[in-house]
Structures are given as structure tokens and as C-alpha cells.
Amino acid sequence: MRIKDEEKQQALFEATIKMVNEIGFVKSSVAKIAAEAKVSPATLYIYHKNKVDLLVSTYLQIKKSLSIEALKGFQSDMDVYEGLKLIWKNLFHYFSKHTDYFQFTEQFSNCPYAKLINREEVDSYFSPVFELIQYGIDQKLIKNVDFEILHCFLVAPILHLANPTICNNFTVNNENVDIAFDLAWDAISYRNN
Amino acid sequence: MRIKDEEKQQALFEATIKMVNEIGFVKSSVAKIAAEAKVSPATLYIYHKNKVDLLVSTYLQIKKSLSIEALKGFQSDMDVYEGLKLIWKNLFHYFSKHTDYFQFTEQFSNCPYAKLINREEVDSYFSPVFELIQYGIDQKLIKNVDFEILHCFLVAPILHLANPTICNNFTVNNENVDIAFDLAWDAISYRNN
Amino acid sequence: MRIKDEEKQQALFEATIKMVNEIGFVKSSVAKIAAEAKVSPATLYIYHKNKVDLLVSTYLQIKKSLSIEALKGFQSDMDVYEGLKLIWKNLFHYFSKHTDYFQFTEQFSNCPYAKLINREEVDSYFSPVFELIQYGIDQKLIKNVDFEILHCFLVAPILHLANPTICNNFTVNNENVDIAFDLAWDAISYRNN
Amino acid sequence: MRIKDEEKQQALFEATIKMVNEIGFVKSSVAKIAAEAKVSPATLYIYHKNKVDLLVSTYLQIKKSLSIEALKGFQSDMDVYEGLKLIWKNLFHYFSKHTDYFQFTEQFSNCPYAKLINREEVDSYFSPVFELIQYGIDQKLIKNVDFEILHCFLVAPILHLANPTICNNFTVNNENVDIAFDLAWDAISYRNN
DNA sequence: GATGAATGAGCCTTCATTCAT
DNA sequence: GATGAATGAAGGCTCATTCAT
Q1: A62-188 belongs to CATH 1.10.287.130
Q2: What DSSP assignment string belongs to C105-169?
Q3: Could you tell me which chains touch chain A, where touching means 3 or more CB pairs under 8 A?
Q4: Which of A102, C32, D4, D33 has the fewest CB atoms lying closer than 10 Å?
Q5: pLDDT tens track for D56-91
Q6: Class of A1-47 in CATH
């Protein structure tokens, strides 16, 4: 008996992302993805129940790895400002390094496949961030407004600026990333003037 | 020669949006869209060169109407804060009223069809906003940072908060919209402490 | 607008029977049937909802035409012996003339597709025969036994003898058909010795 | 070298019959049959050259066991009437006990797989019956007509009445079986009135 | 002997588009 | 202009069979 080939699994993961980014969900057929992964279409079905399962699990795998990278170096006793800035920079770094992964998830979250995701589970990967924000609110460092508002000022700008499909006039470098964070911080933090 | 039927045109527009929102680009076939519009597939080709043309022109039509609504009541001599707030509220209002249009464009902009759009043209619909921001910078009311950064803090949060696919715990009402704008304003405006 | 083509319909009917007889249900793909009918696979789906519908409606059409041929020349006031003999001969004649139709129905009735048929409806095509048998019973010309037993002695032998797949040593000619009917008659009729 | 596992062999035999009866030849894939037998598809190929071989040998095995059961208690010096009646009852008994085996063979004999069977060989299993009929003819107890006619009146009714796919209004019990045999006997025997 | 992995070929069906009326 | 019929190509998926362990 042959054993399941980890390389094929990985090749399918990469091929899926590549094809979806290059030609979109609409034209990314199983045949093309399999060809890109140098695997038979039938083989794909050993690793995934069907096409949707392939796409969903690709998405989840990216989100998982993203959450790990996002929290790299983070400690729960960090200063709120420092903590959020670290995560902000980690996210930009991840998106710059894995533009392809990022593009895939953005396309995914904006199409009906998104409904197939258990949002709570994915959110749980990022719970330390949520806790940090809550701590900031409690400490009156962060405005006490609807959580989604805070969350969106901390996340949406990154997704926007790092996304070359949407925003192609922006250069992601240390300076710009720092500047952008300052805007985010000004948005959410208490002014004590 | 009979004249092209304005009603059919409109029916196709609405059907396209409905189908794409319900089942996504992937499964929205010409046949289904035509059926939804109560029109023959062949008829669709009288109004549009091909499927892509149908989608692209649907997108552009929405963007056009969006820009008109966004600028409703705006005057070029407006105060920067007031002007931006007006537009901010107009946008939220439009997205709440036309959730379906909005969803369509979000799905569109995040998939490869977006490459087919002449971005400059669409941006030109919104040029008064850009000019207002630039004026704010010149007047030292708004931070003098990369334009994309400012732009994204003014737009990305709206797209995030108003999008039920992404953000379903947020209630769009006057109070929340005002609060959110204050965060945006704090993000982009000069602090003079 | 083009109109539905009666010839294509008929070509599909014949092609289905031909393929199923030649290579069986297992290997009779939609592609092969369509090719045999000189029609695109897609065209088949204009005339039939799916493959099963094609097979079922082919079966029903044959059964309908069979019932018409079987009852040709039959009158309700006929002598029981003469009536049954007429039908018996009509059936043999039909099966000899349309061996292909016959083979198709036999293969169909013995496989799970048969479950999809509304038996009562098909039986209703043959109701005059059933009434004649019942009349024979009432007149004490035919044994008063379970109806299925009578029915099977009147039908099963024909299906057996006329079926070249099962019975290839038998020559269907007038003499043999008459002889066979005498056996059937002896089976079902009262002996008054 | 380990020895072939008799249990696996048997499991495949049963699984084949079960699947073919439940979903038909068309949908009975090797994978499904193997799964039903709790065996790997690859294992199946140790016991059978290919899929067709599996089906054919399943058919032959049933036919063999059928012939044994059919002739149980039969002796070559039996009275013609008694002999035929014994076999008639044995057949009904077998078909009632092994409805699944029976259904399989009926489906098999009516589809192109039947061509792969060496008919003479299968017939040879039943040669005592044929000899008995011939003896009956010689003794002028049985009509001297084409052998296939006699054969079909002795066999076709059983296959018809015992087959729930074709005939579902008939109750197989001792009384009905006896009555049916009387019809068969009346069909084939000389009348001496 | 036994097995799950692996596969090219083929399955049924739907696709975007054009034809003929 | 409007339409349902028509289609070759391609869609997702499963097939019978073999491979490698």
C-alpha cells in the first residue's frame, strides 16, 4: 500500500492558490488546478471530497498560518500600543511575503464560498488580538465604541493597502506601514487634549 | 427596426446582480441570468457583446449611480470636515439602501474581472472627493501622508462595516455612522496638541 | 426562433434502442447515443431532462406502440379463443418485426430502471386483454385461478420464445406460433373430459 | 505464500449480488462492490481477472447452485409427471429462498453480458431435466413439438411468477405453485379425450 | 495476499454562444 | 428586435485498473 503523499497535498494547495489568483474562481477548473499541481484530476479527490472542499480547506489553511504569523512575538502582557503595532506590522509583513495567499483569501471572503466558513472558528485563531483590544478599552486607552468599528479600523486599512488588486499605487515599506499605523491608532485611541 | 427595450435592459441589470449575489460568479450562467430576467439567452446578446461585457457594464452602472448618490448635496466650497462627513453618510446610506448593488461590486472588485476596469475612469466619478481631501491637506487640516493611506481610512471602513458578508454584527444607524466617522476623522486629521 | 425538430426526436429514440441493444445500458453513454443520432450531446438535453428520462420515455413509447399493434383487429365481442389467439399472433408479429424494440424493453424491465415505471399506466394500455380473460373466466372457458397465473401463461412464453437473447434455437413462423398458442390455450382453458 | 481467503471470495460474491440488485449493473462500480465486501478494490483483482470476470463467475456460481437445488431428490427413473413437478417445486423454492440470487441472474440474462456465457455448459447442468422431457415425448405423454416450446412452458412461467420485479401481485405458496404446475402440465401433456 | 494511493479515460451535464425563424 | 433550438467545448466527478508497499 502506498502512503498519502504530503508533497501532492502541498502541490494542490499551491496550485489552487496560483490558479485562482491568475484566472479567478470562475475559470479555475479542477482539471487546470490538477494539471498545475502535476497530478491527475482523480488524485485531487483522494485529498478532497470535492472542488468546494479543496477551496475551503485552502482558505482555512491560509487563515491558520496567517494567524500564527500575525501573533509572532506577541505576549499577552504587552503594552496595548506596542501589541497592536506588532500585530499590524506582522500582518503587513505576511501579506507582502505571501501576496498570493492574501489575494486568494480576499477573493474568497467576497464571494459566496465565504458562507461555508465557520466564522467563529476562524476568529478564534485571533482571540489574543480581541482580548488586547478589550483590555485597551477597559484601560481607557481605546475608545469605548462598538467593537466592530474598532476592529474595522485596525484591519480594513491593512487589507486595503496591502491588496494590489484594489490599491496599486501604494508602496508597502517600513515607513509607510508605521505611518499608516499611526492613523489607525489615532482613530481608535482616546484623545486627551 | 424596433427600438431596444429599456425594460429588458433593466431586467438584465437586476437579474445579473441578483444571480451573482445569490450563487456567485462561478455558477451564474448566461442561461440562468436570462431566465431570471425573463428573456431569452439570445436576447441578452442583443444588449451585450458577451457575458463579460454584461458583468462589466453592470459594475460600471452601479459605480456611476453610486458616485452620483455619494456626492448628493455636496458643494465644492464646503468645509472639509462637513464635506467628508456628508459623503461618508451618503455612502452608508447608499450601501444600506442597495445592499445588493454593493455586494455585487465588492465581489467584482475582488476577482479578476476587476482588471478589465479602467480605474481612472471610475475614479474620475469621485474626483470632487479627491479634490476636497487635497484641499484639506493643503490647509493642514489633514495629515500630509501618502494619498492612498488617507483614502483607505475614509473608504475601507465603510466597505467593511456596510458589508454584511464580512461584518454581520454591526448595525448601520445614524449614531453608529457618526461615531465611525469620528474615528475616520481622528485618523486623518492633524492633532494640534 | 427555430422549432423543435421531430426528426431529431425520432433519431434519438432509434439511437437509444440501437446502442442499448448493441452494447447494453452499462456502456451506452449519452455521448455515444447522441453520436449515433447525429446530434450533439447537448441537444439531447433539449428533448430529455436527463439520461434516465431518455431511457424511460423510450421504454414508454415502445410499450405504447406495442399495445396498439397487439390490439390491432381486436373487437370486444370476439370469441375468447379467437381474441386471445389474435393478440398472441399480433404480439409475435410485433416482436419479430421490431426485435430491437423488444430487446430493449426486456433489458429495461429486468433492471432497476423498471422501478421508475408506473406499472398501472402501462397495464392500462392492455386493459382489453385483461377484460377478455376475465370474460373467459366468467364463461367458464378459462380456469378460475389467480389472474397472474393465467396472465403469465399467456405472456411469458411469448417473451421467452420471441427473445433471441434467451432462446436462439426457435424459429418464429406461423406454424410454430400456432402450436405454441395451443399449448397456452391448453394451459389456461377448462378441460371438460 | 498465504492461501486465498475463502471468506473474502464469498464476501465478494454476496456484495456483487447485493449491489447489482440494489443499484443495477450501470451503477455497480468495482469500488462500491469492494467497499460492500469490506475489501480493497485491489484485492478484488486477486480473485478476479477484471470486473466482467467477477460478474460472469458470480452468475455461473448461482446457476450451478440453482441446478443442484433444482435436481434435489430427483431420480432418473421417476415418473415424468412426478419428476417435472418435483423440479418445478424445487425451482420455486430456490427462487423464494434466494430472491437476490434470482434477481441477479434475471438481470444478467437480459443484458449483453449474457453473450459471454457458454450456454451449452449451463444447460448441461440441467441435462437430467431435458432427458426426462425427451423421455416423456417418446412415451407420448408429452406433446411432440419443438423442444423450445415445451421448455419455455416449463420454465418461463416460473421465472415470471417468482420474479418480484415483474410480478408483484402473486403470492408464492404451495397451493399456487401446484396450481401453476397443473397449467404447465396441461400445456405440454397429450390430451387423450 | 492484501491494500490504499494513484491515474487517464470517460461519465453526465451545462456552458457561452450562434442559428434560423 | 426577439426567441427557443442547437452545439462543441468544457465543467466536476467517478471509473476500472495498476502501482508500490
Answers
A1: no
A2: HHHHHTSGGGGGS-HHHHHHHTHHHHHHHHHHHHTTSB--S-HHHHHHHHHHHHHHHH-TTT--S
A3: B
A4: D4
A5: 999 999 999 999 999 999 998 899 999 999 999 999
A6: mainly alpha
